[in-house]
Amino acid sequence: AQKITQTQPGMFVQEKEAVTLDCTYDTSDPSYGLFWYKQPSSGEMIFLIYQGSYDQQNATEGRYSLNFQKARKSANLVISASQLGDSAMYFCAMRPGDHNNDMRFGAGTRLTVKP
Amino acid sequence: NAGVTQTPKFRVLKTGQSMTLLCAQDMNHEYMYWYRQDPGMGLRLIHYSVGEGTTAKGEVPDGYNVSRLKKQNFLLGLESAAPSQTSVYFCASSYLNTEAFFGQGTRLTVV
To answer: In this complex, is the C-beta atom of B41 within 8 Å of any C-beta atom belonging to chain A?
Structure first.
């Protein structure tokens, strides 16, 4: 089964600066999808960005980008121009691309944006 | 636009009691998931389903059962609740290779 590792339990960033949240994964599947979710203190899970294992370019969505390094099995989330509202838990997730579609998550990183 | 709806939102159970959590989605998704979230451990997959009538075990299936009799519903059952099952439970649904949409969560306390 696949394994997702987020090694940063907590991160701090100054408002308006960029921050990188780390995610590494381990899988034997040749095809898979990588996801990042945000969970604010209110508890809902908010989808941020998706990267397919065969995508040639790194995914971007507004201020979010995914630094995908397939050979190193890493899928780091980069948030540019941090805002106070970015303070939340961030989870990395992976799902195999075949029909056996179990989606697994890392332990998460708590990001705090300082004014 | 309901999306994914979980029932109930909160529940307190006594040890040994049983209960069923209901997840309903109106997006015609094939895939549905049940997770539990505990502090410091992220979301752990309990069971999942890749289609109506099919279910599979995830990372932490012990003490739980599931059923997917209708495509839009995914039920999570606790036959004999234990304090270790105190957690926040999330249901999610998706198509293949798209993001999963989550319900608002169910906070379960077993005393």
So the answer is: yes
Tell me: the pLDDT tens digits for A80-110?
A: 999 999 999 999 999 987 666 789 999 999 9
Helix (H, G, I), strand (E, B), or coil: what is residue A86?
helix
- In this prediction, what percent of chain B has a pLDDT beyond 70? 99
Q: Percentages helix, strand, coil for chain B, rounded to the nearest 5?
A: 5, 55, 45
Q: What are phi and psi of A109, to 5 degrees?
A: -130, 130
Q: What is the rounded CA–CA span in Å between residue B110 and residue B106?
A: 13
- Two tokens, residue B52: 């109506």
Which among A9, A99, A107 has the least Cβ separation from residue B50? Answer: A99
8 Å CB contact of B105 and A44: yes
> Chain B residue closest to A42 (CA)?
B104
pLDDT at residue B11 above 70? yes
